[in-house]
Amino acid sequence: MLRFWSIALLSLVVTASPAAAQNREVPYWAKLRAEEVNMRVGPSEAYPIEWVYRRQGLPVKVLRIMQGWRLVEDPDGERGWIVARLLHPDRAAIVIGDGLTDMRAAADEASALRWRVEPGVVGNLGKCEAGWCQLDVEGRKGWVRADRLWGSGEP
Known about the structure:
This protein is mainly β and 155 residues long. Helix content is 14%, strand content 45%. The chain has one helix spanning 2-22, and strands at 28-32, 37-40, 49-53, 59-66, 69-73, 79-83, 87-88, 92-95, 101-104, 113-117, 122-129, 132-137, 140-145, 149-150. Residues 1-22 have low confidence and may be disordered.
């Protein structure tokens, strides 16, 4: 009898996991998983494509969840639906604002300058502290002021 309940419990856990992943609290950050991602005007492949993104890793804000689809907002404020499998839960950020911004060795304006990055550069986001965030741009790592990154902070 114990074996039966163990198998039943394991079965319940395995089948409940995907459903639990669908119930993630919104809003949250995600990034585009593929080189080409279609944003549609509604949550189905029957709806027309409004945008085609060709920027793997681009951060988006997930606003709503509906049966395998996500209503997202991009860095320009455009909203539309993307199929969930084309989104990755890891955080990313895009450099915003005017002109170049510094990427420093530590979270401090006096820290050594590593690189200068221009608006539109996308990277993987690390931890954020004291108004600075770690950014990894194709292996080039450093700290960037959080106010120059779309995708940092609370969604």
